[in-house]
Amino acid sequence: MKNSLKCFVLWLVLGCSLGASVSFAKTLNIKPISNASPERVLFVGNSYYYYNNSLHNHVSYLVEAAEPALGARLQFKSSTIGGAALNHHNMPHLIEPGRIGVSQPFEWVVMQGGSGEPLSPRRREIFRQTAALNADLIRAKGGQVALYMTHVYVKPHRQVKPENIVATESMYVDVGNEIGALVIPVGLAFEEAYRRFPDLKFHNRDGTHPSLLGTYLAACTTFAALYGRSPVGNVYRADGLIDEGLATQLQQVAQDVVTQFFQRN
Asked: pLDDT for 200-241, tens place per residue?
């Protein structure tokens, strides 16, 4: 009863502060991918990507370990600006073939917003408008669109609030549904990883950027959602910096979260 009351109060707080209804189990319009093999992928975001030798590198190594022939053909690019919101990026330039070293159009563009964008009604609206405009541009070039749901702050960050993950999930699912984008539930994977392994650190000491474990977890989640393949058993372990047992546990978290997330359909 106490937990139910807590959730109801949280729902009311979010509904008032964000000016929109919030559901903990919103339907996803985009079906999960199954056994996909994209070769040209662009990641657009900020320092949440580039910490720890960059998310796109870890995803590419997971692909290479799972399917060496596909891994040899990958053309991954990452465009990041420290502290950036999505509207800070010049998407027309980034997706024009040949502009950033990839001669053919990107098959997927994975867009990430700033960590504070879900927490302000004004910034949520800017993110929504930017994502919609970018999605039109990407599809005009023949690409598909994904949204990377960010993880939320932990202590000692000054903006830590228990409702942040609900606001973040809500924004990405709402916008994903509106623009027909695949949503990659990285933020939910962080929450589940902390629930299962409360003594591990998935954030850097600043409470906002990912640790190596956090980046690896995010890469496994991205791999599971974008390629529609389970990361469990993948031999890539951040160049051996993560031991086999722990790597397998984080791979399982990523797969479980992706599976449960797309069961909303």
From this structure: 999 999 999 999 999 999 999 999 999 999 999 999 999 999
Question: Residue 263's Cα: distance from chain center in Å?
Answer: 18
Amino acid at 174: D
How confident is the model over 164-188, as pLDDT tens digits? 999 999 999 999 999 999 999 999 9
**Location of structure tokens 């509207």:** 87
